[in-house]
Amino acid sequence: MTSNYRSWPMILALGVVTIPLVLMYVYLFVDTVTNTAPGSVVPHEFTGEHWRFLWETLPGRPSIYVATLNTFVFATATTLIVLAISSTAGYAISRLNVPFRAFFLAGVMVLHAFPTVTLIIAIFLILQFIGLYNTLIGVILVKAALELPFGIWIMKGFYDTVPWEIEMAGIQDGASRLTVWRKLVLPQVMPAVMALGIFSFLAGWSEFILPLVLAPDNKVQVLSVYLAALIADDNNFDMALFKSVGVFYVVPVIIMFLFFQGKLMSIYGGGTKG
Amino acid sequence: MRILLDQFTKSFGRLTVINKMDLEINDGEMIALLGPSGCGKSTTLFAICGIHRVSGGRILFGGKDVSNIPSQQRNVGVVFQSYALYPHLTVAENIGFPLMIRKESKAEIARKVDEIAELVHIGNLLERRPAQLSGGQQQRVALARALVRKPDVLLLDEPLANLDAKLRLEMRSEIRRIQLETGITAVLVTHDQVEAMSMCDRIAIMNEGRIVQIAEPMEMYKNPVSDFVAGFLGNPPIAFVDGVVTDGQFVTASGAMAVSLPFNDGARERKIRLGIRPEFFGPGGAQPVAGKITFVEAQGRETLYDVALEDGQILRSIQTATNTATVGEKVNWGIDVENILLFDEDGVRL
Q: CA B342 to CA B350: how far, in whole Å?
């Protein structure tokens, strides 16, 4: 490839700026498998003890596997709810004569901009009242509800790019409205569904404030809360352990990114593909 | 199947687009709905296929009133202007889609798809996706999909508008061939008079939501009922000259053109409009008028001239390319008055 400008000055500048970040990541990994004497920056021994949370349950904490399973269930369930409702609601708003359509669209936008934290006390009281406090179901419902405005908006935008003639042709070919949506329209917006699913999953995976407030119990704890509790515990303060759990926490995310990179990019790349 | 529109009315909100239209389409006939954009021809088409609900009147297929039957049950094949192929399906799946909806067996679908693909000459493209096809091929797929379930009527909404000039010529005859071979009743919506004239048995010309005239193409060309129809058919278009006629002598307001007509309405002065087609004006015509050539368009076999009379009135003439007159040249070409079309001041044919 030839370029019409020299690239090395830019690379050098970016490299210099990036060094602190790179160092942070390097030490994050290095510290999880080594011990470093106080005051030194060079590790003096290898050790596996910082990963001990994998084979023993830390005092006062749930098993890491319970927390991981909870996080997985939380993220997956949220994603499924968001996908199911966004893909149908987005279609309805894009194509059907819904009453108060403009009002609804504006409302969705406002809801999306609404900071979660301002709602958290009200949500806490409601969950407490209906008995879903400290349950995964409760926090899943809340998270899904808060993700929905974004999902609906994205899906509506993608449905708007599907030509209406395709639907009319489907109707002429004898298909019902539901079949047209399922067999003809949905495949056109599949990239959006994939991308939205990945976004929702990642958002669920990294969600902290909702599970912390609404489901703090050991039984239903998710990884983010588990991690926060580690650093908040002044009696057993262990920075290297915290870093190890942190690495354990991000690995699935990194794997997902590697797998679904292409799909993720297409959410901003437009609708149908030929 | 015979299609009948009986007092068909369509309004959008308070705006009535089509008011009490009657139209009969005979079995096996190909009819063109021709008109300028906004005349209601597409609205009529969408009402026949059931995308639009009728606001009044009835639509009959054979003897059956389908006005309130949903599109899915009407058995109408539609070819959309953009073809509306399903981009995620292969050509074979596209064509087979209506059959799949009817839950026909896989073997049956494959057989019918092969058969129809053979008819429209796309047998070798069945495994491709729409994005891998040229415009003409996409058109053929759309036709095949519309025809595969043997519809009662085939509706074509500006099917050639998205094709380039050469393909348009080819598909014009192809669509007609397929229509004749299947013997299907077909409705073609178009704003292109050449398409309407070359492809259809009859033309229904529409303006402002009404059918102005229904006739066979040549009949309509020769005997238009109004100046609107005369102006719409024919390429290059007809030239209109306004003036008065007294005792069979026609003269324009400025006096730049005076001819005697085979039309006598007595000594009373009467306002009248002449329609002169380009083929009836040129050297050797019986009644000469003086003018100057302002524009020459060579089309190969023929050459088209614009001739301005003294008062600026333009007459058009089309002649074989042997004529060598050039721009600016003064000419004294004649009008073949026997073939002039006469309209009264409201544009109604006399």
A: 6
Q: Is residue A266 predicted with pLDDT exceeding 70?
A: no
- Please check whether residue B97 is in contact with residue B86, taking contact to mean a CB–CB distance below 8 angstroms: yes
From CA B64, how far away is CA B220, in angstroms rounded? 31
A274 and B130 within 8 Å at the Cβ level: the answer is yes
| Global pTM value | 0.80
- Chain A residues close to B97, C-beta within 8 Å: 170, 173, 175
CA pair distance B346, B227, nearest whole angstrom: 9
Q: Which of B52, B71, B141 to mutate to test the interface with A (most CBs of A within 10 A)?
A: B71
CA distance B336 to B170: 35
Classify residue B188 by burial, with Cβ atoms within 10 Å: 0-12, 13-18, 19+.
buried
Among A70, A91, A113, A112, smallest CA distance to A218 is for: A70
Does the distance separating the beta carbons of A173 and B145 come in below 8 Å? Answer: yes
> Is pLDDT of A212 > 50?
yes
* B53 at A interface, C-beta within 8 A: no
ipTM: 0.80
Distance, in angstroms, between A188 CA and closest chain B CA? 7
Tell me: the pLDDT tens digits for B261-318? 887 777 778 888 989 999 998 887 778 888 899 999 888 888 899 999 888 888 999 9
